[in-house]
Amino acid sequence: MNLGTVRQDVNVLWNLAPHDISIINYWLDDEATSAAATGGTFLQKGIEDVVFATLSFDSGAVANIHLSWLDPQKVRTMTVVGSKKMVVFDDVSADARLTIHDMGVDMPPGQISANPFETFGQFQVAHRHGDTVIPRIPYPEPLAQEMKHFIQCIREGSEPRTGGQHAISVVRSLEMVQACLDENRSRLTA
What we know:
- The chain is of the alpha+beta class.
- It is 34% helix and 24% strand.
- The radius of gyration is 20 Å and the shape is globular.
């Protein structure tokens, strides 16, 4: 998200989401099986400049993506919520690009309900706030790393981490989201 270049050849989904979806698919080693989306066309008729999308996976994982050309701040974050910890990657931060939070809700043993607490006080006791860690990790230039990997694959005749099949899965997800946007646009304007 940021107040950036507004394109006329694609909407914000096709401009900004491929990278996010590629990362999500790579991390999950999976492809979305369903999507929901809504968007807004504030600057140009028929070209979404704001999109909210949800991708669902057979594993039960869900990815929410917010894309915008109309935001006063440049935001490039990904938050991963796990059963024990949460991780935030902030691609724009100079000093805290990766933050690991030991936070969550400790459910009583054997409890599977999302709301096992009778009072807010019980919930507060179960709400865990542990340590926050910002690991020292080198952050090389991403495009330089991508090119090194590409050249290595050519030299060794190996498959890239994100090859043709991965790219196809990203496009399938983009097409699912676009179909939702098209359906919602026609439903809203009909």
